[in-house]
Design goal:
A six-stranded parallel beta sheet has the order 2-1-3-4-5-6, sandwiched between helices. The longest helix is centred in the N-terminal third of the chain and has 18 residues. It has nine helices and six strands; from the N terminus they run αααβαβαβαβαββαα. Helices cover 33% and strands 12% of the residues.
Length: 257
């Protein structure tokens, strides 16, 4: 990572307090769900594996998976209980979960959606098993900065029982996997420095900005629309997100000054 990325400060106290937006964002999702269902492209039935963030479990991704299941996908939780950080055999168990879904759905490649820490896991899994991963979408995942560019690193160390600098995959996270890769982020994220969530430019990588909190990214209406739009990209014919039309009002130009 660059020196600038390595020294990114975590979000301010004011932004942490703005994480309280998660409650109205959840209400907005249910209020706007009928509209989202009408404007988001339908899925093609392929499997989607959704990974939760730190201290969260599959209950935290229930709303997102429910929407995807009703919209033409086969969305599944990670089935690993609460996310207490990297632990012995977690990578093995997650690869086994990918293999199980791959076989269950007729050897169709699986899309991975990872929220925060779950997105870091998904990024690594897509590098290990690119032949079984169709695309990768991360939500507020700080793969391009120092672990201490977040307000969650002390919590991670407490619940995982390990020093964050000791994690083997940290030095390789910034490099994207060889599959279509999308990072959805917010500049007003109160947990992770938004600059640490940016992919380097490339033909199969992109960044999509939304206005919202970190803790609400898994059910924020704009993020849910973007996830559905990305998952609907034809396999082998992926195109970057289109901000034209009404979308430019909802999705800002993330490359603006």
């Amino acid at each position: 990572m660059s020196a600038a990325q390595a020294t990114l400060p975590p979000p301010s106290t004011a932004l942490r307090l703005l994480e309280l937006r998660v409650v109205p964002e959840f209400g907005a999702f249910w209020l706007m769900r009928p509209w989202l269902s009408s404007v988001a492209p339908l899925g093609d039935g392929h499997p989607v594996l959704v990974l939760p963030g730190l201290l969260a479990d599959d209950a935290s991704t229930h709303a997102l998976r429910g929407f995807l299941n009703s919209h033409g996908y086969q969305a599944h939780g990670w089935n690993q209980g609460r996310n207490f950080g990297l632990r012995a055999n977690l990578e093995r168990d997650m690869l086994a979960r990918i293999d199980e879904l791959f076989e269950r759905y007729g050897r169709r490649r699986i899309s991975l959606v990872g929220w925060s820490l779950g997105g870091l896991y998904a990024r690594q899994l897509a590098k290990i098993a690119p032949d079984r991963v169709r695309c990768l979408i991360s939500l507020g995942s700080p793969f391009a900065g120092s672990p201490k560019s977040t307000n969650a690193w002390r919590t991670y160390e407490m619940v995982s029982g390990s020093k964050i600098e000791e994690q083997d995959l940290l030095g390789t996270l910034a490099e994207p996997p060889p599959v279509p890769t999308t990072s959805i982020f917010s500049r007003s994220d109160g947990i992770c420095a938004w600059q640490a969530c940016l992919n380097r430019d490339g033909p199969q990588v992109e960044n999509i900005e939304v206005y919202g909190s970190h803790c609400g990214l898994g059910h924020h209406p704009a993020a849910v629309y973007a996830i559905a739009d990305r998952l609907a990209q034809p396999e082998g014919a992926w195109q970057k997100f289109d901000r034209t039309g009404w979308r430019h009002l909802v999705f800002p130009d993330w490359q603006r000054a």
